[in-house]
Batch of 2 targets.
Target 1
Amino acid sequence: DAGVIQSPRHEVTEMGQEVTLRCKPISGHDYLFWYRQTMMRGLELLIYFNNNVPIDDSGMPEDRFSAKMPNASFSTLKIQPSEPRDSAVYFCASGPAGPSYNEQFFGPGTRLTVL
Amino acid sequence: GNSVTQMEGPVTLSEEAFLTINCTYTATGYPSLFWYVQYPGEGLQLLLKATKADDKGSNKGFEATYRKETTSFHLEKGSVQVSDSAVYFCAYSSASKIIFGSGTRLSIRP
């Protein structure tokens, strides 16, 4: 299994531009999570999906952030417009049914720099 | 509210030293407990887990015991290696989510 795949691995953009991060979860996993990691705030859960349906988006910082999961094998996290304070590493993770009792599998992350 | 508290880093040890990273949690019910590890430039990966009181999780020489009476899940290793240098996260399950601690950076000197 290839594991969770994220693209791009690195993204540098200018303030005000739209940024789209992509994730392919592990086949057969029912849950998908988006996290953000910064030195100041640590690891933050932004949103998670169950069977392609958003369950909890309370961690999404503001309306500039949106996430979709059109099918079981693909999800996007979009930032529009981007700001320098959005610079962080964004991780996607997936998990099988009942993640309370199972591990989450993390992708390698996308390092976003907003100038 | 629910939270995980782990010892602040960085922790620096010499190779073959004994390691303890403390972790306590505040949660209702009987959550599953985890230690995740993040190597430089990578995502987090599960190191070990315990699903009920008095369970001991172990992997790669690391151990942690689920202590409900003290709400703790301390990570230990008897003899650390340079390759153990990483950031370690204590975590617990909450509904369909995992709540992570702030992470402890561990550096091992040769």
Target 2
Amino acid sequence: QVQLQESGPGLVKPSQSLALTCTVSGGSITSGDFYWSWVRQPPGKGLEWLGYISYIGTTHYNPSLKSRITISIDTSKNQFSLKLNSVTAADTAVYYCARETVTIYFDHWGQGALVTVSS
Amino acid sequence: SYELTQPPSVSVSPGQTARITCSGDALPKKFAYWYQQKSGRAPVLVIFEDNKRPSGIPERFSGSSSGTMATLSISAAQVDDEADYYCFSTDGRGDLRVFGRGTKLTVL
């Protein structure tokens, strides 16, 4: 059974960069049938798709974040990562990593990692 | 940008059918997906490709789509079905993935 687990700092200062890693277990991240995605949810609010990466490094981002976001992949570690630059309090959220199928739905999710942007 | 519009809340009595709608301009040509999210938990897919149910999801959950509106129906709603439900789809080009703002289902 595939499992995903987010890790990274829970507190980031404004204007700095947020960095999270998702470790995939129970399956290979190099499977060509999936995209590896990030979704976030501000406290008390709805879900927002951030972007995805394929195992060969093809990326696609939400245009609302395109200038600040980078998603990368490390196939040797079965991990993919999120970096969000120039964060503000509006970036405070639970960040989920998820596996997206070729039919464009998320079939496995991490448990979520709360990242708070505050000085 | 592209938006999917859902009602903020729906309330039904136990045993009734709950219907949650999702409207979007691209829905006539793009599939709708539905996620259930209980408090403090990651979302769970309950319907994919408009009307297909993943294994393990009760038959009480069904989906339909007509024109610019997709609908999630939960028959014989139970208190355990109380959750936030999000529709999900893509824009007309298939580039942008979008969640609706979510609908809080209350069963009481």
